[in-house]
Structures are given as structure tokens and as C-alpha cells.
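Thread: "does anyone have the structure for this chain?"

Original post by V.I.:
We have the sequence but no experimental structure in hand. Need at least a predicted one for the grant figures.
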Amino acid sequence: MPTISMFYGIIVRMYFAPGERPPPHFHVYYAEYRARVDIRTCEIIDGKLPKKQTKLVLAWAELHQEDLMADWELVMNGEEPFKIPPLR
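Reply from O.Q.:
Generated one for you, C-alpha cells below.
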């Protein structure tokens, strides 16, 4: 699963697998926490993150929603996603 961005100890990944199920989403890892985030709504689908990291991830997702959807299309076609700039 390629890492598409990293910031403040948060790792954002997207499965490189055409079999991945809708809705379009990405995976977030922070220490022992894990979550899936819906790209279209910028909301956590499942899993859990601390409040601070949740705010950071959702703000980053809103800023890069178009890039995330483009990456989703790539992985659904079996192609590797592009890196997306971190939150600064």
C-alpha cells in the first residue's frame, strides 16, 4: 500500500488495488490508531484517530480533495498513485 503523504507523524496511504471497495477513500495511520476517510465527504468512515490528528487529516483532505480523487482513479485502474504534499 503506497504512502501518498506524511505529516506530523501521520501516514496517509491508498491501497494499490482495483478490488478496493467504494466509497473513494484513503487510510490513515497514527501511532496505534487507524482510520479510513471518505474522499468525497472528508469524514472518517471507520476507525479512530485522536481529536488533534483527526482535525489535521480532515483539513488536509479538504485541501487536496481533487488530488485524492485523481489518486483514487489511478489505484482503481491498477496504477500507482502520486505523492500529495503534506500539511504544513
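V.I.: this helps a lot. The radius of gyration is 12 Å.
O.Q.: and Residues 51-63 form the longest helix (13 residues).
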